[in-house]
Design a protein that fits this description.
This protein is of the alpha/beta class. The protein has 8 helices and 13 strands. It has 2 domains: 117 residues, Transcription Regulator spoIIAA, CATH 3.30.750; 180 residues, Trna Endonuclease, Chain: A, domain 1, CATH 3.40.1350.10.
Length: 313
């Protein structure tokens, strides 16, 4: 099947080079892009929609925003091949993200007409009861990898105060699970992928707003950071609306019960660098949706761990 991938890549690269240093800009080869006038149709394979959202081929939110911002296309339409296993946790998570992204950005993003019926396979319905698992004691342990160690420093050690100051936080926590279950928390009732899926850092600020941070260590630049943070915000919105609930919270987890009473979500990319195509205008597109309920920000830190807010260097 022919595609417009090379043409789109060159257009994005040309726009990028007008105001930036030369970088090797590539779009994912695992997504087929086709131009139709001022519209781009992006086609994802069954493997892409059943894979981790961090991977380039599955991070449709990030690439849709890139097409809008850098490609200057008026409309983006998504289509995909339905996988054989619709119960796959990654696929269910894809459908969930897609449902809310197509609602949030409906002025320019839509689902291809032949694929709209596939949304019926999403297990999560508004009227049902869904549960999130509460953090386990394992969340207190620090894995021997750069991001886990950084996470511990930002929440418990030397970087806690700088992060609290820049985000106006009153409390910070690690590892909030985002596995979703139907009626009971068990492997058999799991809808999304479970395992280690969790929000890196979260907390509350002085204005009773809910804070969520997606942390990346040095040299981890992926457009998928947008998909990850967007998904976490969607899950927390469902908790705020009490469609998703934490039950059987112990005293030490009492802070989970405060989430529905928060006034707003503030979502932060927290990293030394971002993918070169993720810039201030991408942030602006994210912030156009429901600014009274959700806002997106970028906290950058350098080698000396000095933090700056919403500055793109």
């Amino acid at each position: 099947m022919s595609n417009s991938n090379l043409e789109i890549q060159e257009k994005i690269k040309k726009e990028f080079l007008l105001s930036n240093k030369r970088r090797n800009i590539k779009i994912p080869s695992g997504i087929i892009f086709n131009i139709a006038g001022d519209t781009v149709i992006m086609k994802l394979s069954s493997n892409a929609v059943s894979s981790n959202m961090q991977k380039d081929d599955g991070a449709f939110e990030g690439w849709a925003l890139v097409l809008k911002r850098w490609g200057k296309y008026q409309n983006v339409i998504i289509s995909w091949d339905k996988p054989n296993l619709i119960d796959n946790g990654h696929y269910q998570r894809f459908l969930f993200r897609l449902k809310y992204f197509s609602q949030d950005f409906n002025s320019w993003f839509s689902i291809y007409k032949d694929c709209q019926i596939f949304l019926d396979d999403l297990k999560i319905k508004q009227a049902e009861k869904y549960l999130l698992n509460i953090p386990s004691k394992r969340g207190d342990k620090v894995s021997p990898n750069p991001e886990a160690e950084l996470e511990d420093r930002f929440v418990n050690k030397d970087l806690q105060e700088p992060l609290m100051n820049i985000s106006n936080a009153t409390s910070l926590y690690r590892q909030l699970p985002v596995g979703v279950f139907e009626n009971k928390v068990s492997k058999s009732a799991s809808i999304f992928t479970g395992g280690k899926s969790a929000i890196d850092i979260w907390g509350f600020n002085k204005e009773n707003e809910l804070l969520v941070f997606e942390l990346k260590a040095d040299n981890n630049e992926k457009v998928g950071i947008i998909s990850e943070l967007y998904f976490y915000v969607c899950v927390l919105q469902m908790v705020r609306r009490q469609i998703f609930k934490h039950e059987n919270c112990l005293d030490k987890n009492e802070h989970l019960l405060k989430i529905p009473a928060t006034k707003k979500i503030k979502a932060y990319f927290l990293s030394p660098t971002l993918h070169p195509l993720v810039d201030k205008k991408i942030l602006g597109l994210l912030n156009e949706v429901v600014p009274d309920e959700i806002s997106y920000h970028y906290i950058q830190f350098n080698k000396e761990y000095k933090l700056t807010l919403d500055t793109f260097n």
